[in-house]
Amino acid sequence: MKLIGSNSSPFVRKVRVVLAEKRVDYDYVLANPWDAASNVPEYNPLGKVPCLVMDDGGAVFDSRVIVEYLDTINPVNKLIPASGRTRVEVRCWEALADGICDAAIIARLESMRPDNLQSADWIARHLAKVRLALGAASRGLAEKAWCCGTAFSLADVATGVALGYLDFRFAEIGWRDDYPNLARLNEKLQKRASFVDTLPA
Ligand code: GSF
Asked: Of 49, 63, 98, which is best to mutate to test ligand 1, by the most ligand atoms within 8 angstroms of its C-beta?
């Protein structure tokens, strides 16, 4: 199995954290999806990473589909509850965390366009989504040890990856002061080997 990805992508990091937590061996192939000559579209017509390529050549994307698949391939450290309300809650935490990354990435890409083409409103709209989603995550976490239920799950993986992405690209947001409970969770998550080994550089 091989994972096509880039070290700066939070979605790739989420998949790599899951692979590490589930102790699955894989080949990691670095790719820059923004490069005009990128071969990513051969595996994912949307041209996005991460993309998981099976031993028979079949390709799977996007990160939510990949992590769902990975959680089924062995019984180690189950990250997604099998069914019911807790399953949908974990997936909703993932959607919230992925949404933080999506909005932050849109704001960042907009801010990288030439000054005369940038829209301050568009950037502000997406940074507002990030702030609202952080508030929702903080309220959802409350004083619990983990995001969902009483055990470490994909909800924590996705949330830790989103917080890590904000630290990497939007350090100025300073979310720790407003959300000390997220800071407490994040400190615990970023110490796990799966997070340490995938820190964006
Ligand atoms: C998002 C992947 C994505 O945006 C997922 O896998 O969960 N919903 C998808 N990947 C970005 C890299 S990054 O910013 O994380 C990507 O590959 N962008 C290239 C492009 O052409 O949009």
From this structure: 49
d(CA 19, CA 35): 26
Dihedral angle of Cα 70, 73, 75, 81, to the nearest 10 degrees: 50
Cα distances (Å, whole numbers) of residue 154 to 64, 96, 127:
10, 12, 24
DSSP state for residue 171 in the 8-state scheme? G
Query: What is the Cα–Cα distance from 193 to 58, expressed in whole angstroms?
Result: 29
Q: What tens digit of pLDDT does each residue of 117-166 get?
A: 999 999 999 999 999 999 999 999 999 999 999 999 999 999 999 999 99
C-beta 62 within 6 A of ligand 1: yes
Nearest-CA residue for atom 8 of ligand 1: 62
- Mind listing the domains of the chain with CATH numbers? 2-73 (3.40.30.10), 84-193 (1.20.1050.10)
Say if CB 198 and CB 11 are below 8 A apart: no
* 165 closest CA partner among 25, 9, 2: 9
Q: In angstroms, rounded to a whole number, what is the distance separating the alpha carbons of residues 71 and 19?
A: 9
10 and 61 Cβ atoms separated by less than 8 Å: no
The structure's pTM equals: 0.97
Whole-number Å distance, alpha carbon 51 to ligand 1 midpoint, is: 10
